[in-house]
Amino acid sequence: MHLSGFKLCTCLNNASFFTDLPLQLPDGETDLYPGSATKVVQLIDWSVNQILSHPDRIRHYQRETTITNTYKADLPLRGICWTIAQGNIWETDTWRPFVAKREPGEWRGRHGGRILRTIDSRSALPFLNYEGQYSLQAGKQKKHYNLAYILLVHEYFENVKALVEALDDPTVFIYIHIDLASPNEFQEQIQTLALNKPNVAVMGTQFSIIWGHMSLLWVEVRAFFDLLDLISFDYVINLSGSDYPLKSAKTIYKTLERKPGSNWIYWSDGQDTGKEWELEMRTEHLFQCVLVPEEPNPKQCQFGFKNQGYEWRPWNGYKQLYPRRYKTSQWIVLHSSAVEWLRTSEAGKLLMVWAENTLIPDEMILATLFASSPFVSKTYKDPKRLMRWLGNPHPETWWHEDREDILNWQKHFLWIRKVDLSEDVELKELLDDIRKKDEMSEDIVVPYADGIIPVD
For the whole model, what pTM was predicted? Predict the structure, then answer.
């Protein structure tokens, strides 16, 4: 049943809810049907208001946050609306579920106790272009490209310029997102770089990107969907301004086409590293934007978690859809058919709203989604990036002194990260020489070793 009329949780308007779960409404109603629908809507709104009125939340939570250059939202409100609407929460003094247990000790019945069935993307995620209404080429026949690149950039123009020049090819389309917080001079430089290049476009919707926050995934998903409207393509690849190609456009496409229709995403369920607990922590705790007293710009979300004892959301309602959760890298390659499916997947939309309050969702959500998708047999656990990690918080930056290691490994990879070519001209010369030689191993998936890693 579709519910509307939410005054506080407007992101839930037109969402659909299961009607086969026993409820425990304040007046004794036990079923969701047209006669009780208004009561359920009012109860969700009331519950969210009560939770947001808690003194800790008033003191700590940042209520309004800039998402894009045209859209702002109350992220703590959205997060608590999603949590209450799921229905499958623990009963505490703060959280009071309205889905009844079937028997003592048993979880709350069907669907893992989850009552939220689907969302309406127009109400819930209007900034992601699920509806296919965005196009720079309205009325024109879409041109086909073998490869489409999404570049996420925010600084270091010379690096971005070198990357665009290296990627540029008639068979390649380049779609650039500039972080909303980037300096004006940098934004103007990127706009000038794209000028008069028919295969390069700057994304009109700019997201305010926060490390560890859903905004990293939002911008990528929006770019995926924009590309479906703008052009026809076979594969889409996301890169940052710290990346560089190791092979020509022809060889990159030929390598991916060894497995036609393939996707390239590494994932691990944590069992091999003993870190299943980390996946649970990241997905089940309710992370929120918090106020930072010394922050000069209160509209810029500071993503964090203040463990107050009632910020936990069990995964039970999602186990039917996603039996296992996975850790991955942000860096992926998707076939256009997978992007089209992502745009229409109702389960995927539910995962997107759940992920809104997880920690570092860009390293979990797409792997979790595609591991339970029709594309799992066409997905290969190798993102084809040459990356190195030596135990520090972030991957190492490659320098020309690493020449021997780069030469030893380059034939297995299509791109390299992280690099700073504006500071290391000799490295750029080395990488350009490698790209000209265009050597590629016959191995499809590489066994990683010696600090070379598939995740970042």
Answer: 0.94
